[in-house]
Amino acid sequence: MAGRIQIIRGDITKQKVDAIVNAANCSLLGGGGVDGAIHRAAGPELLAECRGLNGCETGKAKITKGYKLPAKYVIHTPGPVWHGGSRGEAELLRSCYRSCLELAAEYGCKTVDFPSISTGVYHFPLEKASVIAIDAIAAFLAEHKEIQRVRMVCFDERTAGFYETALAGCGVET
Ligand code: AR6
35 an active-site residue? Predict the structure, then answer.
């Protein structure tokens, strides 16, 4: 039987889940990468709601509706930009995952899909980011049985491979 943490390859904008996470920037006003794809698929009402949120700090999260997306909610989190690892990047990335899951639980979400936060244009090394992500998700799920399933939705094979390895190595029965 599959565990509560799963890794899939795919496009996060196509997933019919309670909440998808957006790897945003602090303005919450859109950008490239997965952020651009989510805004395109959700339609202009998403940007309109985001304009009222007054941005978001790195490592924190804010929630909106999903509009034209199959997902009910979008949880927006600005990940840390990688500066070499000495500027609290690891703790900030961990905080992104935890903050998103806290909001998901608060809104009654049972299924949550994440993209690989910070490993695109923010250049967080995948090997480190994948271990932090899986560890943070596993720790949260251990305390929150009401969330049934969390998936990492990876856009490419290389990214999926790192998360598979991290999941296999995390040693937590999820
Ligand atoms: N579904 C799933 N994953 C995707 C998709 C998709 N449709 N599109 C891209 N990815 P990035 P970051 C993957 O750069 O590093 C934006 O401009 C992508 O292959 O989107 O956190 C924001 O506004 C990569 O593995 O996010 C910020 O300014 C992962 O998503 C900045 O980029 C994250 O890559 C955030 O940078």
Answer: yes
DSSP string spanning 72-121?
Answer: SEEEEEEPPPPSSS-SSHHHHHHHHHHHHHHHHHHTT-SEEEE--TTSST
Query: Which of 34, 74, 121 to probe ligand 1 with, by most ligand atoms within 8 A of CB?
Result: 34
Q: Given this model, what pLDDT does residue 148 score? A: 98
Residue ranges of the chain with per-residue pLDDT less than 70: 1, 172-174
The 10s digit of each residue's pLDDT in 21-41 is 999 999 999 999 999 999 999
Please name the residue whose Cα sits nearest to atom 27 of ligand 1: 25
Estimate the crossing angle of helix 157-169 against helix 126-143, to 10 degrees. Answer: 50
Catalytic residue among 11, 35, 113, 156: 35
pTM: 0.98
